[in-house]
């Protein structure tokens, strides 16, 4: 799973890495302890323009499908298992047309042993942005007026897969990582066979894992109210 991650001054780097055309002026501030329901910047291709416009937009972590009656549904859908996407109604349509990339500095994972749980910070060794494969949805709040600009909620989920070595020694799941070269294919709204696209992303993820490093961090990261650069420092 991926339940906490870090975004520290990543947004400006993405303009070059992912060739972002439009960067929202309402992006959340950097955070060292992002938890589900937080607002985070995500990258998506808007199909309403020709050619599609690549945007960096703020979104709520936890997918809220268009048919949901309440935004709280998203709190349970902050991760989506790659092997279940094509079968689950909550994710099926988003996989076809609403794929996103979630940029991060790194993420936290907890290793469970007989002595308890130990948090690790996992990130690219070269300091480059880490790119999670994600899905997004737009949800309209029926309780708000038609002319209320806050009526529409953009939300997302991070796709996960079975962990591969060496991350498998920390946890049995990991985010589905993308490299910058695969970004165009993942965001392409005109892909014909999303099953093949998903398989290709899963197969390529171990190449990203090879460039990651990890270290133990303070248990203070377990409290979402803690949010400072010290959280990612080696214990």
TrEMBL record:
PANTHER family: ABASIC SITE PROCESSING PROTEIN HMCES (PTHR13604:SF0), DC12-RELATED (PTHR13604). The keyword DNA repair does not apply. It comes from Microbacterium aquilitoris. This is Abasic site processing protein. Its EC number is 3.4.-.-. InterPro entries: SRAP, SRAP-like. Belongs to the SOS response-associated peptidase family. Transmembrane segments: none annotated. It comes from the Bacteria. Keywords: Covalent protein-DNA linkage, DNA damage, DNA-binding, Hydrolase, Lyase, Protease. SUPFAM superfamilies: BB1717-like (SSF143081).
């Amino acid at each position: 799973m991926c339940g906490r991650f870090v975004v520290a001054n990543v947004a400006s780097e993405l303009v070059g890495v992912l060739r972002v055309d439009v960067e929202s002026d309402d992006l959340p501030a950097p955070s060292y302890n992002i938890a589900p329901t937080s607002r985070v910047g995500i990258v998506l291709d808007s199909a309403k323009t020709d050619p599609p416009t690549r945007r960096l937009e703020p979104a709520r972590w936890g997918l809220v499908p268009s048919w949901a009656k309440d935004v709280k549904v998203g709190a349970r859908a902050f991760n989506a298992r790659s092997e279940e996407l094509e079968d689950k109604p909550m994710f099926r349509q988003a996989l076809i047309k609403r794929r996103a990339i979630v940029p991060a500095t790194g993420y936290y994972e907890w290793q469970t042993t007989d002595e308890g749980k130990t948090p690790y910070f996992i990130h690219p060794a070269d300091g480059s942005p880490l790119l999670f494969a994600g899905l997004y949805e737009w949800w309209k709040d029926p309780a708000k007026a038609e002319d209320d600009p806050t009526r529409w909620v953009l939300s997302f989920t991070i796709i996960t897969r079975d962990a591969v070595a060496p991350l498998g020694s920390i946890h049995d799941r990991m985010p589905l990582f993308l490299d910058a070269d695969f970004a165009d294919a993942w965001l392409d709204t005109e892909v014909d066979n999303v099953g093949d696209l998903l398989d290709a992303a899963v197969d390529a993820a171990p190449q990203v894992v090879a460039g990651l490093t990890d270290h133990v961090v303070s248990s203070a990261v377990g409290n979402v109210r803690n949010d400072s650069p010290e959280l990612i420092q080696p214990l």
